[in-house]
Write a structure and sequence with these properties.
- There is one protein chain.
- By secondary structure, the chain is mainly alpha-helical.
- Helices cover 88% and strands 0% of the residues.
- The chain has a domain of 77 residues.
- The model has no long low-confidence stretch (mean pLDDT 90).
């Protein structure tokens, strides 16, 4: 095992533990994170496996395959963040409307 492999494995383990703490109440997310980090550790230990998988999928190099997968993962992450932002905006609007209606009713009842 090379030094970079040891460093990458430690980073994967640290990232997996950190992600597990963040998603402590969501089993599905924790299992997905576990799968990704175990796969990452396997690719660090066996770097030629990415080339074999890439060739079976019609991509010439394993690094290219990983890059393509990362592009899709980043786009997916942006969509999830966008949806969460929209959801928070809707909730904020609902709360502000409810407060405005409550305050208007309170003002009418005092007059």
């Amino acid at each position: 095992m090379t030094t970079i492999q040891a460093i990458l494995i430690l980073l994967c383990l640290g990232g997996g533990i950190f992600a597990s703490v963040i998603f402590k109440s969501r089993l599905g997310y924790r299992l997905l994170i576990l799968f990704f980090f175990v796969t990452a550790i396997a690719f660090v230990l066996f770097p030629d496996a990415t080339n074999v998988i890439a060739r079976h999928l019609g991509v010439t190099r394993g690094a290219d395959l990983l890059l393509y997968l990362m592009v899709f993962a980043v786009i997916h992450g942006f969509f999830l963040l966008y949806l969460r932002s929209r959801k928070l905006e809707r909730k904020t609007t609902e709360v502000i409307r409810a407060l405005a209606i409550r305050d208007a009713e309170h003002l009418q009842s005092t007059n």
